[in-house]
Amino acid sequence: MDTIIKVFQFIQGLGVSVVMPIVIFIIGCAFRTGVGKSLRAGLTVGVGFIGLNLVINSLLGTSLSPAVQAMVDRYGLSLSTIDVGWPASAAIAMGSTVGLIIIPLGLLVNILMLLTNTTQTVDVDIWDYWHFAFTGALVAIITDTLWLGIFAAVVNMVIIMVLGDVTAPEVEKSLDLPGVSLPHGFTTAYAPIAMVINKIIDKIPGVNKININMDTVQKRFGVFGEPILVGTFLGIIIGIIAGYNVTEVLTLGVSLGAVLVLIPKMAALLMEGLIPISDAASDFIQKRFQNRGKIYIGLDSAVGVGHPVTLAISFILVPLLIFLAVVLPGNTVMPFADLAVIPWMFVLITPIVKENGFRGLIVGLIVLVFGLWIATDLAPMITTAANNVNFQMPEGASQISSICDGANPLTWALVRLNGLGYIGTGVGAAVAVAMAVWNRNRIKKEAAQLHDEGEAA
What we know:
By secondary structure, this protein is mainly alpha-helical. Helices cover 71% and strands 4% of the residues. The chain contains 17 helices and six strands. Strands 5-1-6 form a three-stranded parallel β-sheet. It has a three-stranded parallel β-sheet with strand order 2-4-3. α3 packs antiparallel against α11 and α10 runs parallel beside α12. The longest helix has 43 residues, at 246-288. The relative contact order is 0.16.
């Protein structure tokens, strides 16, 4: 078992840009795409991820975070819980006992769900299994029982896999990612909330007619409504609020304008490599298993952060989040390290609200308010988990938390349910089983419809 764990830890350490080409190559060969085409597809996807990481880390990480820190310093803001960011959360999760087995466990869960027809997704995003391990680590702490932590991680994954299937058609249409689903432990957790709020807005006269999207903006404002200029304008506003000088304001503006241009181009490159493999996988499955419906490749939600509406909403909400953190009663978390991952919250919200920026902002405000409360509530357990794996705490920090996954509503719900004892654990398990059974029935209906359409053609 130790040898197996070390192998998967080695794979985890390779990173997305190395692991993805290997996984895509193996899948391509398995589905008879051809060695040459599979190798080219894998490398193209790897290059796409390198491009995404360069843009996200270099432009968002080194431009947006310092601007926010300048706001904090300028206005003398301080709160007692430090946002240590997703890299620290991932390290805490993967350093836990649950994290040591999450990759082989996650692969087993995915295989079993495929065999039982309770998912349509082949989830190759194995490095992001840490989201499930994070939930499991906190549950193990609150229950003082390791197996309950492992069980909670599995429940978390099953729920996310089903939600990934359900939202995949919108991902294909809105994000232009054919054959892709996003079973991402952080991003996908916000999908049900967006669905509910979107339905509520539909029922409000007048408000349900408000529609702000990039197409409307571009038609009304012409060249000034294009993503590059929207990003630049928002960057300039953030720079001014941060108290930057003229040079710094203009640099931030150009940097955020570049983000809105470059991320979609990197995502397009990634899809260039993925589409042949996705098509081959779907053809292979549908020829041999008529009751399987369409098959999706599960990817990191980074492939969808480049949508102009997602990024525009995120840039608006980043400075607003700082204000909320200070004035929100009961909050102790000062957002900082995870501000660059705010767009990940909206990757599925944007398609669900049909790219309506107004509705996206409404959903965003709600999830950020409750996210701060959740991050505050989970901070003691996250701090304990960090101490358990000998995480180096920031100097002077009494407690730590994060936006990703400390503000994750699904993580919070599973942790608090398990904290109620075996009844709560049973409720969480029942929800996961019910969703899996419902998804199986949905997949079978979809498969039957595809079969009928094929015969009619």
